């Protein structure tokens, strides 16, 4: 079996690093820490880390996974993701995209294969570039904006000090879910995540 491609969506640059929209990239930072690795620039306009994810049964290193953070803005993520999938010869069923989800309560995680993009421009761009919606997604809930705040403004705001302790737990749980998908497959990972 070939490698997995795990993509964390977000916007490039320090000014966006703490935004709700960048929670996918935050999950990849947790995974990079677990892999004791660091991201390097790739010609496909992304930061990548190529290594082994988790521990396989018997204590051997887990499956090969390429972690990738597109260096493009969220709404044009498809270019780098499509180029990386081609470069590493990764089919859509071995692509896992980690992204923020307005329609899930904060601190909620959901795994799914395919389906609609729910107005998420990063997913729309990836689906367009790949020519399919049949790739895996880990949806990280950020909740709806308060009051009448525009969702576009809400996703570009940093997590508040009150939210950060819960966020730290969610990021670890999301990293666990990614490892379980890569090691056990989608169905087993869904059972563990959705019934916990």
TrEMBL record:
One GO cellular component, as annotated: cytoplasm
PROSITE patterns on file: PEPT_TRNA_HYDROL_1 (PS01195), PEPT_TRNA_HYDROL_2 (PS01196)
GO terms, molecular function: peptidyl-tRNA hydrolase activity; tRNA binding
Active site: residue positions: 21
Superkingdom classification of source: Bacteria
Site feature (Stabilizes the basic form of H active site to accept a proton) residues: 100
SUPFAM superfamilies with a match to the protein in the record: Peptidyl-tRNA hydrolase-like
Listed name of the protein: Peptidyl-tRNA hydrolase
Source species: Georgenia soli
Gene: pth
